[in-house]
Amino acid sequence: MKIFNKIIFLLAAVLVLGLSSCEKKTGTGPLITTLGTGAYVTLNKSINTYLNYSDLNNTTVSIEVKEYGNPGEKVITYVSTNGSIDKSTWKPVGEFPLANGVATLVVSAKSIASALGVQPTDLAPGNSYTLFNEVVTKDGRSFSIANTNTDVEGNSNYNMALRWSASVICPFVAADAAGTYKITRDDWDGSVGATVEATATDKTLTLTYAFPAAANPGKAPITITIDQATGAATVAKQVYGSYGTGYENFACQGTGLVFSCAGKVTLRLQHLLGSSDYGTYPLQLQKQ
Q1: Burial 73-97 (b: 16+ CB within 10 A, else e)
Q2: How confident is the model at residue 19 (pLDDT cuts 50, 70, 90)?
């Protein structure tokens, strides 16, 4: 079934792209032979998709791809200025030869910054950049998401690697994370501008108090658990305070990012009173 689906895809692709003659044929011969085949690359291995903000001069992202369809000569990788599939917004960041149909694509933070016309330090933690792969076949044709049906590209049966991403992260360092933070966004209780003290361990950041407008009973710090390598943050369900009679002991839970290198905390927290869900709101803080 998978092979049949790929044949159907290649047939559909050439019909859309007009890869060769639309000459009318009769009889029972295979139409795909008449029209010719296209090409794309599949994902063999995702090696790394994170750029380390703490080492922007050396950090890279990388994947291994394999050709499918018409024999390929090379893969050209581009970064998009806005994430669009409009090829006019793409800038090249590398060319990689296909050796026995396989290529390892390695893209550096410096090449992304240069293509975008910015300094590497402008690739701030939390930013993500869309990368597009274009296959150049040995007969000189080019195939990318710009001339491939996006519904087909999104079908997991094909395992296409026509686009991927580079996300800027930095390892969590407790000594850099601890200190005083200012709330820069609080859509829950509106405490923008208030300051919050934070303590840290190797894998946690504790905010005292994340919601300054809350009161006793139950007024308590919020502890964030952090993946040291990526800064990915998790807030397990915990009580943080009350908002008057009938609104005692609110709890929150959610996910986000903590970037100690930039002193930035970005969370999305669901607020709960017993079994009642009061909604999910962003909370953002910046170290002072």
Answers
A1: bebbbbbbbeeebeeeebeebbebe
A2: very low
* Contact indicator for 182, 191 with CB cutoff of 8 Å: no
Quote the distance between the C-alpha of residue 162 and its chain's center: 15
Long-range interactions of 177-182: CB distance < 8 A, separation 24+: 177/205, 177/258, 177/260, 177/263, 177/287, 178/205, 179/263, 179/287, 179/288, 180/287, 180/288, 181/207, 181/263, 181/265, 181/285, 181/286, 181/287, 181/288, 182/285, 182/286, 182/288
For the chain, give the mean pLDDT.
88
pLDDT at position 36, please? Answer: 58
End-to-end CA distance of the chain: 58
Distance CA 91, CA 156 (A): 26
CA 112/CA 118 separation, integer angstroms: 9
* Assigned token pair, 176: 């850099």
Token pair listed for 264:
């930035």
